Amino acid sequence: MKPRFTRRLLALALAVVVAVSAGACGKDEPATGTVVGQLVKVTYLTSFGNLGRDSFARVAERKGFFREAGLAVTIQNGTGTDGVIKVGTGKADFAAVDFAGGTLQVAKGDLDVRAVALIHTKTLAAIMAKKSKNITTPKALEGQMIADFPASVVKLLFPAYAQLAKVEARKVRFQDTDPKTLISAINAPDIDAISQFVVGKPTVEAVAGSDVTMIPYSDYLTDLPGNALWSSGRLLRENPDRVARFRAALMKGLAYTIEHPDEAGTILHEADQTVSAKLAAGEVRLMASYVGWQQHNDPGQRETALAKLGYIDQDRIARTIAILQGAGAIDAGLVPDRLTMWGLPPSPPPQFVTPPPTTASTGPTPGTKGPTP
């Protein structure tokens, strides 16, 4: 990518972030690049189902952040790392997918997709088991049956994790499971553990009816980011303004969610009444440290922390590639520019103003036939 084009994208993205933030302060006109009275339709995939970790998209929708950016967003439930495949093949415009898992999919399928924001600063991938199973160390995974699903980042990353954690990967078995019943599989008699994200522990314990032990991948895959926001290379080339507006609105939703976990849980429950608002809020609280947000008494420090949400460090991406290559997960030759279109600068701190009341959702957002150009 030529430096001049990169600088133009950076300037455009920053201008859009400022415009969207200003929209939250009461401006009536839509964000730059939209037609007055119209909203551009886009489709977004969550990382996995409708869980607390993905509630920030529903929050951005309910709080009007997408609308202020001139976007009408259809939120659909994702099913893991295949989200980047759907983005790359035009079945969705945006998706939240684990960065390392997305990288493996790009390397495997030569997909024209790019990460435009990091949602989590380190990987959330983990394996959980009932405490009675006594799976407390990586080595204890040998000889066990782990319930997972085909597009799971936990399964995709396991060979790399096993190499670093000194686990004989061939002695660990994975059983394909329907994503909708993955958590309840922890109670199946032939299952020893399940794949999960670390923030899902409260939900897993509620379903298991007991304490669970957790083997987090971040203990060994120390420099891997967690979920990232992915867009297609085509959309970035043809309409970078739309990507920048969506990114800014979603990051505002993420910031608001971290600051208001109980409200986020309620919003998610109202969108999908099968979700427990309490458990969703618990996931959000556990997720706070993974998005780089901490409570600060000093207003300046707090604003600085909020402003860094989503920032992509190219050196960090290079190290991630090196880790995956060193573990034999991907071949040599992949470079950061192949995975990220730009390294967006820190956004201005979001200004949270209570928007006009909106009608409460009564169920999941209905799906669409595909993304709108």
UniProtKB/TrEMBL annotation:
Leader peptide range in chain numbering: 1-24
InterPro entries the UniProt entry points to: NMT1/THI5, SsuA/THI5
Coiled coil (UniProt feature): none
Bias-annotated ranges (Pro residues): 345-358
Statement: the UniProt record of this protein carries the keyword Signal: yes
UniProt xrefs under PROSITE patterns: PROKAR_LIPOPROTEIN
Residue ranges, compositional bias (Low complexity): 359-373
Domain SsuA/THI5-like, chain residue ranges per copy: 59-264
GO BP of this protein: thiamine biosynthetic process
Superkingdom of the organism of origin: Bacteria
Keywords in alphabetical order: Signal
Stretch list, region Disordered: 345-373
Entry-linked Pfam families: NMT1
UniProt name for this protein: SsuA/THI5-like domain-containing protein
